Amino acid sequence: MNHPLITKILLTFSILTLTAAATAAGQSKNKQDQFPINIEQAEAKASAHFAAADDNADGLLSADEFARMRPNRPHRSTRFSERKRKGTRTNRDSVDRRAHRPQTQQARDRFAEANAKRAAEHAKMRAAAESEMFKLIDSNADGLLDADEYAAADKPKLRRQARRAAAFSRFDANGDGFLAREELPNPTARLRRFDTNRDGAVSKREMRKGLRARREAENS
Asked: What crossing angle do the helices spanning 4-24 and 116-137 adopt, rounded to 10°?
């Protein structure tokens, strides 16, 4: 379940655990000062975040409730989209994006050589997100994209929606259209595994060792 398209969703929980620990200890917001991470406080914060998203308090998250767990933030591509609609986007923006594509593909190829299993998962999730993206742009649901649909689509916004939809489907193990708490990634379970001295907190050193061990296990 470790692939870039759902990493943002996973990071929601991880960031919450870090923030909870830092706030409780009265530490700086600087990432370097957020350790050690208190596991109990992190678990309470994650539970509160789930409960806040669960609008009807039924213990399950619908697709809409799940999407609201990650409030939209300003994004560079959104600004590009606004500039394009206003007719101020230059050809250089498009040229720069095309020039960047070979570098992205090269990075993916290097990753695939080192992590074949995870690379396959990445590709699968990218395909799922692209499929969702197509459905969102296809406003008349005829299975085809015409020029008007493509031009009218707010692609950065729809891309975020598509990625969340793909992540939702990935997490929904029983396919019932809702997410139970146990279907979501549990960062505190990982934190407990990283807590090698069993003091209820994860130090920066324990975090680094745990992440390194996990990568080695995945690549073995």
From this structure: 100
Q: Distance (Å, rounded) from C-alpha 195 to C-alpha 38? A: 10
Pairing state of beta strands 201-202 and 37-38?
antiparallel
Comparing CA positions, the residue from 113, 6, 102 lying closest to residue 14 is 6
Alpha-carbon distance of 24 to 39, in angstroms, equals 12
pLDDT tier, 165 (very low <50, low <70, confident <90, very high otherwise): very high
Cis peptide upstream of residue 74 (ω within 30 degrees of 0): no
Query: 3-state DSSP call for residue 175?
Result: coil
Query: So where are the chain's domains?
Result: 4-219
pLDDT tens digits, residue range 12-63?
444 444 444 444 444 334 444 588 999 999 999 989 989 999 999 999 999 9
